[in-house]
Structure formats: C-alpha cells, structure tokens
Amino acid sequence: MSSSTFSSQDNDASKSNDKPSTKNNNLVVVLTGPTAVGKSDVAARICANHRGLIVSADSVQAYQGVQIGANKPTPEEQRETPHMLVDVVDQDTNYNAAEWQRDALRVIAKLLSQTTSENDDDENDETLDKATQQRQEMINQTILDAKRLKGYPDAEPVLPVVVGGTMMYLQWLVHGRPDASKPSPQAVQKAHEVMAPFQEQEDWDGAVQHVQSHGPIFAQRITTLCGRDWYRLRRTLEIALMVQEQEQQQTSDDNNQQQQQDDLIEKLFTGQREKSLESYGYDVRCFFLCPDDRMAHTALVDERCEVMITKGLLRETTDLQLAGQLPDMAARAIGYRQTLEYLQREGAKDDDEDAFQEYLNQFTTATRRYSKKQMQWFRKDDKFVFVPIVMENEKATRVEAAAKAIQEMIRLPRNEYERVCFAEDSVSAKTMKDNEAQGKGMKFYQFKRYHLKPGTAELAKALEKADGCTQQIQAKRREMVNVVEGIK
Fold it and tell me: What's the predicted TM-score (pTM) here?
C-alpha cells in the first residue's frame, strides 16, 4: 500500500515529522482486525518505529499457563516488543471486561507518564482485594522492566499500542463501560446458565425470544442492540431476573418498591458510557486491519488452526486440564473448547480419523465464524479506520504496508486525520463496503487441508499424539467417576 493510498496530504505530513503528531504525549493507537490478519506483527513494527509498547486486548492471553491456544507472543517476541496485560491472572481468577478496562487505563496512563483520578484513587484504595493489588503491582513492575529492556527512560512517555481481537474489551476501552446497575450475583449466575447453551449453539434468535418472554419493556430494549451483542443481551436478562427477584420478594402493593423497580428498568440502557479513552483527553486513533480478499483470508484462518494443532494444542490442553490449571475462560474459548470436547468424547477409540477430522472441522468453523463476527462488529463502529490488507502479497509485505499506512495516519494533526480518514469517499469507507459486499460470496467457500491431509505422515503423527492425549483424559474421567461412585 503506497503512501498515496489515503491522501496526497499524507505525504506532506509524513515528511514534516518523523514521530507521532501529538507533542503533548497523549496519543493512543488501537489496532484490531480479524483472526490471522497479522495484528501483532503490524503493532510490533509500529512500536519499533515509534518507541512504543503493546497493550494486549485479548481475554485469553491475560491468563497464565495457556500459550498455543491463546496465540501468545513467544519469549523472543516479548523481548523484541514487550506486551502489557499478558499473563496477569491465574486460572482461578474471573477476569472480565471491567477489570481489563481498569488495568488498561492504568497501563496507558503510566506509559504516557500521566496520571488520572482513577489511577490516583486505585493507588490509595485500601478496599481493593489483595489479588487486584498484587496484579497492579505486577503490572507496574512489568512496565518498568519493559522500558528498561528497551532502553527507554523511566520518566519519558512511551506510545501505547493497544492490540487484540476481544471485541468487548475494545468497546469498553474506546467507548467507555456501560452505565447500568450492577445485577445481583444470583441473577448473573442464572443468566449465564440460561444464555450459555444459546451462545454455544449460536442460536441468537432463540436467545432473543427467551429474553423477550420476560416482558414488553425487555423486548423493546433488545431492539436497540447493535448486531449480535451477546453481552448486552445477557445484561438485559440479568436485569429482568433482578426485577423478577424483587417481585417475588414483594408482599404488598408497595408503591415505593414499584418505583424502585421502574427506576431499575430505566437504568438498563441509559445510553451513557463512562471512562472512555477520549474522556481522559487522549488522542485516540483506532484501526481495523481488513483483508481485501475474504476468501484468501479465510483460507489463512483454516491453515492457522491446523498449525496450532501441529504445534501441540492437544498436548497443552491435556496437560492443563489434568493439572487443573485450564482457566474457565480459556476452556470456553475457541480452540480449547473444541479440543476438550474431542478429548472427552463418548466412545473414544484409537486411530479414529473421522473423529479427528470432525474435531478439526468444528475448530476451523468456529474460528471462521468468529472472524466474520469481528468484521461485522467493527464495520458498525464509527471510531475505527479500515486499513486494507492486500492478501495476495507476502506476509512481510502486508505487514510493512499496513504499518506504513497507519504511521502516516497517526502523524496527521487530529483535524486532518478525521478529514482524510472518515470522508465518505475515503479508502476506509471503500474498504468497509467491499468487505461487506464480499460476505455474500463466502457461502461458496470450500475448505481444504493444508498440513493434516488424509494419508500424510503429518496426519498420522497428529493422530498418534491425539490418541495419547485422549487416553489420559479418558483415564482421568474414569478415575473421577469411580471416586464419585465410591462416595455414593
């Protein structure tokens, strides 16, 4: 992608300044894209050229222990470009979007050598649980270690490059967290139990019908959702269940109680969000790496799934599961979930190529669907500039071109950036439209195997390893069943 791809003004801007445009050190770059598009490589290139560090926006990479299934940076990649918010919680911690947003805001402020009122409050908040305090101390030390590793002075600002594909994390960071009442623990647990089967089957319509059954007000609220927003749908159900709890507790026609219920419902969607990046005065530049050929990109997604298996996904999942160290979040994530289902399948037998191929089909299908969802999600987010990735080019060329294009855009003054990048006839707008238009043709996509082909030595080797892992998991299950039977 040449520098003229976005605007002729880009060339002038890039010549006038070799560093990011903002001299008040408040620039934050947010970078995302579908699975396997090359986000981390592009981010690393930007960091190398602009004295930056990566802030991971990946819900699975935050957990210790997982590696292959989380596609974590290798130790070598970490030394080259340190990543913040990777390996920050153990398998027993429930790390959610709210916790991540809080940590990400702190990291960004510290990288830019700034403080926020929230950071100040956290530093002196004695009510924080011990685990959160320890995590914050670890994150602070990671930042210091990263700066020293790269030779950056402790007190000087570093460009935060937020990178990842977890949509909810990025939505909360860029737009702020939703302003809604906190549901009861019972409502949260029940809503999760109810919604989990719908989400696993991707039965959006069924889930919507269930939530709508709780009353007209909730049915109406669902119409305001953007796309298949499972999080907000579950939050709607949580509030509905809270109201239901209060109705069951109500023993008389208490007008005050009824008013409290009405207020609670009204707070379900206030339309307000708080603590967005922009609310802290940051100059936020958000980019979505968009493949120009969805067929070619989808083939890359399929191959990546196979590579993860050949690298040892089955062995990693088995070892973590047997040790009781597989986080619940990871166990539900694409890759680990399908692997666990395969290892724990009923009637497992050795050298079962059909079962293995079905496992691989489920893995690749789920990954493709997630990639599609990422594209749909960010096409509706008006904060993100779509950067075209020419799939016919070699990977190194794709990375270099994308990094160059983004660097040109972050050098632009803010008003010029908005004028160039968000115009109706901009490259971003065209890329977005092309991406959506190609969706119709994806129904003709035909997958193929790249490494684990029938009759190959590579497949035979993978099957042998898979059998060994399956035997261990099945033996553990039988042991647990015997223990339970013994107790009875």
Answer: 0.81
